[in-house]
Amino acid sequence: MKLTNLFAFSFVSIALIACASDNDAPTQTGNQASKVQARRAFDGASGRIESAFGALDDNRVAPLGEVIDYSEPCSLGGSVDLNGQFDYNETSADSSIDLTASFSACQEEEGLIDGSLHWTSAMSADHAEDDWTGTITVEDASGSYTCAFDLHTVLDNADITYSGSICGYDVNADLGL
User: Fold this and answer.
1) What's the CA gap between 99 and 9, in Å, rounded?
2) pLDDT grade for 177, boundaries at 50, 70 and 90
3) What ranges do the domains of the chain cover?
4) Sequence-distant (≥ 6) Cβ neighbours of residue 54 within 8 angstroms
């Protein structure tokens, strides 16, 4: 099984966060991100992680069950480093991920990201649980803001539940998930 297939499966449930509606303008007060900025922070960080994870898989840098230690340059400067472990049981199709993504002045067209996110995931044929924790700082056209992640998702058959917060917003009460 390709790492990117499992990564994409995990992001399907998380990416729904970016689809929740709100009427907040993309402005900020101090260092508090708006809801729109919270989504941008997640989209930017997850996009860079997904790209690096895909390159890692394509380059076969980390065989299953071994340590991942991979760095990929960002398109306009800086880098994203992936460190952790990915395990996959071919008999049961269960998998687990324990990965830290560290952003070092990672500059993309959309903005600059610094900080780190820790992602753990456990998946089976009909159940997946993901946890995202950490803090990133984003600088983009709307300003500079710090965004903490403490997100838990559960995908049980077709039912998805969310708990926790992104950029200080409760994923249920504030972001409507």
Assistant:
1) 16
2) low
3) 3-170
4) 3, 4, 7
